């Protein structure tokens, strides 16, 4: 350190560590896979493979005894773009098609349908869905029940009768009016990818130094713990931003998802989230010394909560209350919320600012924990 | 100048309150301008002491000051003035030689002009200049150690801590490492060199003999060696019986230690015991006993209470093999990796009941040859036969006739001793009665009963080695291959191990072994010297030594022979 001040020595050491780390990232196919191949796979999977939309629900409508009412109901189904309707008079007609998946649901209007309606009784309609595909089944069931309700309402209004109670709710969907699940799945999967890169890769690279024994020689040089941490974090931070760029490009040009917010806010917000993910990874790595354990812990504490409790696959508000509380400490939750806002709504400060503050608070806590538990010695 | 570099007083390091301390109230000093050797059996605390001095472990009690710094309070200032080379290769295998050097130069603040000069000097010094672009992971063992040393020496440290730098390194690279270190001490650097090669301790100005965390001896190794004056004897003329003679000699209470040296035996007597009489030990008429010069190793073994004398009955049944068939035969074994020929028409035959040593520098093709002989690597051309069976023609029949003990023991650390035995018995196709008998035999022969429930990973090294050997011979093979079975193992454990091997040989087992220990090479009946993919010499240890004898060096050691033969081969090639 003779020719340089202590600060320059520190900068030089950090630079050397970052350079070393970057070379290792470039040479190690696993970093490349986690950083670039995995995001693409996840995006394609969520963008194309997983879909919560049943764009057209194929319905087999059984009309056991055609009347004016049944024709009216048929018309109300056929007139929406959501249903492709086939008709038969035989209740057993569609059983094979349902089994083979050729149709998604059977609606059976029994023979006494019109009579019961005329009497003012509750006319019962049988709805059969394909339970082997529960997602589509519940969608189909929901759509058909919706269609049924709205038909009843219309009928009631036409007849001048009061509408049945509890159906004056008019759900309206904003921002994703086409209800295309891809539009919220893609931002959600970006969050998962960032979580993976931040936590998993960081946990792995430090554990690898322990496993290969390289940390022993490194610790015997005049590097401080902060230098070591920065040297580990900076390359993965850049890798995280690069992976996000790949994802955003794919989102915009492959999946045609609008980016309504500003790209700079997107990068800024992602950087804040990466701080949390990276320090979580560092914390894991300071606790375990094998890559296997590190990856298991990263999966369980970072990836899975991100998948389940970030609200991108499963609606948080429909979870039991304790789980809702739990979701408040899952960083991915805030990131997903912010990302969906940035992509689908725009620069909405009332969402982004609280989310950013929550993430900053988390990263501060994690950093403190990490700095306390990271060892510069071997015992 | 003679201000000590390290001051340790009453230093204790305890990892676990229940176990004895790794370092126990150790008081010592490390002086500048000389090499201090740190020797001791495995588990003596050598690595712990190194790490304590490098500031990588915190002492439990006592004081330790290195280069004037408290190792706990001022680690960064300390790390600025020491060089440390861990036992395990600590550099990045996925970085090239130059990238590793650059990283450590940056970390140690060697920049600008100084870096250019230092690199030039170190690369010339280590002879790595040709390999700067090669990935460190692709270097041979010796070259890796040299690179590690270069990185530790980048900033001319005041104190250089080298933890077993010569493990797995061939004699030539070992000599080069010592040359590098001697050049440093000329500049006043203090060097601590821990080792399990006791011939290296004789190169040190000071030694610290550690056992169970305590210093048994501190000071000049020559002074320690001289205490053995008059107690060391050489028994020659026992001929083919020498292994049986050794076993008989070791059974006597006045014999502290004994090893085979080529055709002769080396015996160390207890204090004040008279010289052994040949007729008391052996019936062969030509046996002669003469006093010989003591070595540091003799003193070391004596200080640790002599060779462990267990009565071991390696009860392998009479091993017939196919009578009249050569048990091991290599015929023009050749292996090419792309354009590189790792083994070039290597041929040798091993007789029944013979110990055959395969020696050679790192990267010479020794391991390649060994792997082809075990059936682990298919030769490009040529044949490997075990008991007349082609390893690649009738692989399972041939493999059933050989036992193989891999370098790192290949045990399952998370399984108990019993489970390991049971697994390997199953792997060799033993079932039912045959399996339980084989396991009982192994437990009885190797004294494993007290450890049956212990996990293999938690065993002391000597027992790990026993277990690995017993697993390799569960199926009672007539041929046993040992790949560096004693690398990094201390002399006492090695002696015990060779006791087993000698007992197996007495039963007619044929052994092929690789080693970097020259004293172990002397246990062999014949040696094949592999260099640059060729077998450049096959002969008995004495004959090899005789080949390099000159008027200046009438009694060369086997190490001299090793180096001499390789240099002679280089001259012919050039």
Topology, element by element:
The complex is a heterodimer of chains A (379) and B (574).
Chain A lengths: L5 H22 L1 H21 L7 E7 L4 H11 L4 E6 L6 H6 L4 E5 L3 H7 L6 E4 L4 H26 L22 H31 L1 H6 L5 H29 L9 H25 L3 H19 L11 H7 L3 H15 L3 H25 L6
Parallel strand pairs in A: 1-2, 1-3
Antiparallel strand pairs in A: 3-4
Helix pairs in contact in A: 1-9, 2-7, 2-9, 7-9, 7-10, 7-11, 7-13, 9-10, 10-11, 10-13, 10-14, 13-14
Chain B lengths: L5 E8 L9 E8 L4 E5 L6 H8 L7 E6 L2 E2 L4 H7 E4 L11 H12 L3 H15 L14 H12 L6 E5 L7 H15 L4 E6 L2 H4 L4 E6 L2 E6 L1 H6 L5 E5 L5 H10 L3 E7 L2 E6 L8 H4 L6 E4 L4 H8 L24 E10 L2 E11 L4 E5 L6 H9 L6 E6 L2 E2 L4 H5 L2 E4 L11 H11 L4 H14 L15 H12 L6 E5 L7 H16 L3 E5 L3 H4 L4 E6 L2 E6 L1 H7 L10 H16 L1
Parallel strand pairs in B: 3-8, 3-9, 6-7, 7-8, 17-22, 17-23, 20-21, 21-22
Antiparallel strand pairs in B: 1-2, 1-4, 4-5, 9-10, 11-13, 11-14, 12-13, 15-16, 15-18, 18-19, 23-24
Helix pairs in contact in B: 3-5, 14-15, 14-16, 16-17, 19-20
Please tell me about this protein's structure.
The complex is a heterodimer of chains A (379) and B (574). Chain A has 379 residues and is mostly helical. Chain A has 2 domains: 6-50 and 180-373, no CATH class; 57-159, abc type-2 transporter like fold (3-Layer(aba) Sandwich), CATH 3.40.1710.10. Chain A has 14 helices and 4 strands. Chain A has helices at residues 6-27, 29-49, 68-78, 95-100, 113-119, 134-159, 182-212, 214-219, 225-253, 263-287, 291-309, 321-327, 331-345, 349-373, and strands at residues 57-63, 83-88, 105-109, 126-129. Chain A has a 4-stranded mixed sheet, covered by helices on one side. Chain A starts with 5 loop residues before the first helix and ends in a 6-residue tail after the last helix. In chain B, helix 14 packs across helix 15 (432-445) and helix 16 (461-472) runs parallel beside helix 17. Chain B starts with 5 loop residues before the first strand and ends with a helix. The radius of gyration of chain B is 24 Å and the shape is globular. By secondary structure, chain B is of the alpha/beta class. The longest helix of chain B is centred in the C-terminal third of the chain and has 16 residues, at 491-506. Chain B contains 20 helices and 24 strands. In chain B, the strands form 5 sheets. Chain B has a 6-stranded mixed sheet with strand order 6-7-8-3-9-10, with helices on both faces. In chain B, strands 20-21-22-17-23-24 form a 6-stranded mixed sheet, with helices on both faces. In chain B, strands 2-1-4-5 form a 4-stranded antiparallel sheet, covered by helices on one side. Among the domains of chain B are: 6-225, Rossmann fold (3-Layer(aba) Sandwich); 227-303, Alpha-Beta Plaits, CATH 3.30.70; 413-476, no CATH class. The A-B interface holds A 1-4, 9, 12-13, 15-17, 19-20, 23-24, 27-28, 212-224, 376-379 and B 15, 51, 54-58, 75-77, 79-80, 82-86, 88-95, 99, 102-104, 106-109, 111-112, 148, 151-152.
